[in-house]
Amino acid sequence: MGDAEWRRIAGLRVVMAWPQNGYALPPRTRGSIVARAAGLIGALLIISGAVAVIVAFALQVHAPQPPLSAAGATGRTAGGPSVRRSLPVSIDIPAIGVDSKLLHLGVNSDGTIQVPSLYATPGQAAWYKYSATPGQIGVSLIEGHVDTYRGPAVFFRLGGLRPGDLVKVRLADGITAVFRITGVRQYLKSEFPAKTIYAKTRYAALRLITCGGAFDDATGHYLSSTVVFASLTS
Question: What angle do CA 214, 215, 221 make, to 5 degrees?
Answer without folding.
Answer: 130
